[in-house]
Description:
It contains 34 helices and 16 strands. The protein is α/β, with parallel strands linked by helices.
Amino acid sequence: MMGEKGGNVANDTSFETSGGTGLRPKTFGRATALFFFSGALGLGYELVWIKKAALVVGASQIALSTVLTSFFLGIALGGYFVGNRLRSSRRSPLFIYGIFELIIGAFALAFPFLFSLLEQLYGALYPLAAGFGGGLFALRFGLLFALVLVPTFFMGGTLPLLLDGLVSEDRAIGSRTSFLYGVNILGAVAGVLCTAYFAIPALGMNGTSIAGGFGNLLIAAAAFIFFRHTPPAHTAPQEVRLGWFFPAAAFLSGLIAIAWQIAWSRYFSLFHTTSVYFMAMLLAVYLLALATGSLMLSPVLGTRWRPLKILGGLQGLVPFFALTMIAWWRAAELSVELQGKQITLPDNSTRIVPLETLEINHLNPTSYMMFWSEKADAVFFGPLFQIALCIFIPVALMGTGLPALIAAATRSSAALRPISGRLVFWNTIGSSLGGFLAGYVFLHLLGLHGTLTLLSFGSLVLAVACLFKVRTMPSEPAAPLSRQQRRHAAPSPSRWSSVLWLLPVFGLVATLNFWWSPDITQETILKDGYGKNPARGNTILQEITEGALTTTWIFDGPDSIQVGSGHVSLAVTYKKGWSTQAIQGHVPVLFYPGRELPRDCLGICLGSGQSFGALLMYLPEDGRLDVVDISEEMIKISLRNYREYNHGLGEDDRVRVHLDDGRHYVDRAAPSSYDVISMEPPPPTADGVCSLYSLEFYQGVQRILRPGGIFMQWLPLYRITPGDTLGIVKTQAEVFPFTFIVKVGRDDFMVLSFPSRPTFEQEELRARCRTFAGENRIAGARWTSLCRHEMASPEGVLSTVVMGPAEIKALTGAMIYRDDTQQLSYSSGDRALLRLYRGPALSPIAFSALRLSPFATLSKYFNPPLDAEAIGKLESERARALAFFRVPDPGQVAALQAAYRGSVNAAERVLHALSLAGLFDAALRKDDAFDWVDQALANQPGVAQVGPRNKVRAMVRNHIAVYTDVTEKWIRILEKKYGAVPLVSVMRAEIESYRKREAKKNARYLFP
């Protein structure tokens, strides 16, 4: 069973077949096939366990480290025990291997039930350990270790069993070991890709575990059938003395391999937004490279080359390739260029509107890599090539480590089982420690640049140690070679000994050169990360903090200060204008029901702290604000740099900062603890963040929210698709039927939810607006230049209400996001839009999924209810506030509708109808727009003037790639009703022209 995540560790191998014991080649082939599928299932389980455990103990790095440490320790113990203790005189090791697979499968089937027990036990014991860092860590580790000990123990035992059952010839130890090690890791590659791309999205985590359990049962059944007559291994186990070198080398090899993986993962996060696909691809490429290294080593170990000498030379090249190829990903950069024009909106702001096909500059070979298909390139092949160019060669070299050490340490096949068990044990322990040291010590103390340098020196130490060790070991007598073996034999090792000694010199030169070069973190952020984002403006990189969880940074300049993590900006403060983040902090109090102000507030995900600092303006002296953030670095950098913008959040006695995962904190908080819960998490589609947008999370929020409270969740339309938007809103409304959507910035929105029907007191709102006006640069400001009321006025605040409970309930076609499936991380059905459109080009598309609630239906939530005059004014003010989305002015719409109904002239009615169609089309309300085209044709089917034809042509062209299906649907409706009349013919010709352009573009792919 494959038990390794990313280094040359664990149980990833089994070995040997035909030889002196009489094992047939068929036996070896069958065992190899079973070991491949065993590796696939093992990695699938690991992914599922990590994701499930994060829901209980939190998605923080320490929780992840706890899971992996438990995983590795279980494998190490299994390998050590089976390799040194377990013997049977009645059954073949291959038959016992089937028993192990049976036990693993039974656990996988029971995993959903066992995990629910762990959740209950953790919840019961958490109050006893809360507040004690060591006690909490021990509780998490103990429970998770107990949960995964059984399966990982038996996973770890599969390697020594297969080695004992398959390897019988001394001269085949190295080649068979290396070959089967590689095959097992290839299975792990298949497992991680299938689990991430197909199994979890389709089956969920529990379903994936159950399906994997049946897979293990099939492997067990096959082993029982294939190996029931295989004789037991009669050779008595040898008492072997390894000394200290081989365990130490195996330990160091595992430590370095996993530490390199952690360092590369941090490097990629500086310029690539992490996702479930990207991280799965990183793991898959890593494993594939390990398998390649092991498989390429296999034929070499079958010759007279000494394993340690080969290992020393190859490990010496690891720093050379790792440091010189680290930026080669640019050769496969998959980027898109939106083709559009800048338009000026009625409020004098600007927006990019896509041209015709909208869209992407596919004809520029330097900006987009054509390979398989547009989706496959973006989701699979692009990340595959990028990662492989950086890490494949050095990881392949590291993949030779464990097989070469086993081959070098084993002098006879009888000693293979105990030796492999011990070396796998130490290799796995090293891997476990490597992940911890890289994340919590090296990156935190040395930064990425220092960590890469240290790991390079570590690889060189391992290389030189192996080369010196081989000189002290006795030479092995050369085995006689057949004529065919002599014909294909590698050159005599003595000819290349000096070359192998020179290889670490290349690694040393590369390491020293990298050590003295500019800091890689700073260079990457500036050249490839957020530093090249136009939104950065004229700011400069002021500060970088590298910690266990992430790399945080501050860009500061005369106009703005921006804080972010990795590749993503988390908060922008404009020094000469109002701040969206500050406004967000006022919203939950402005819409707080009743006449009283909140006393106890919870803020999750700190960012710049402006939002939570704004809450302090309303809290009484004995009030409480708990702030929870997962990153210690983000907390420090924000409180240090944003003091003048977040109302001294870090110095206020009412504030308590908690270093914890937001989901974990909510699940463990006492019931009915808070009046206000405010959230500003990272983008919803980032890896791991989906747990803050799930049905189960909202149920946890409901549990700790007081009956008259309010919960506010961030809805960044410029980072989500229409499908994501609907799913987030509908999932939240599934728990909170009284849910509203309000606008707080140009394209930032918030979802407000109440545990019971709220009543908004207009008198209290007016008083709270006076406090709102005291926020920095808010007094006198308006949402847009068209607005007639200040934003800190009751009219300005109410004009931000976009949707209410009735309209949200009427939304259809939305997913309900659950923890088990994590669909928000994978796709809501339209994820391609997120790959093609960004920022202000995406937000109008996402906004089009929403529908405005008439203030007449919202009036009942106010005391006193809104009168007719106020309703009319608010409708117009809201349209002005939403000018960026080209929301039509209701007065203009009403006037055109009245003119349409009042006209008796068919030509005039056509013009009015097409004008209305144009207004709705500008707001991307395509169904409403085409419905008015239908009404225009109903009045005068044969209209053929240039003006009407140009209008319908522009409507078809407007975001045609996004709305191809709805446009095609309406064209068919119109063709059925009116035939090939001029306007319909123009629409058909336009969409066919687009399809031809798409076909021409797609023809450049292998599989369009």
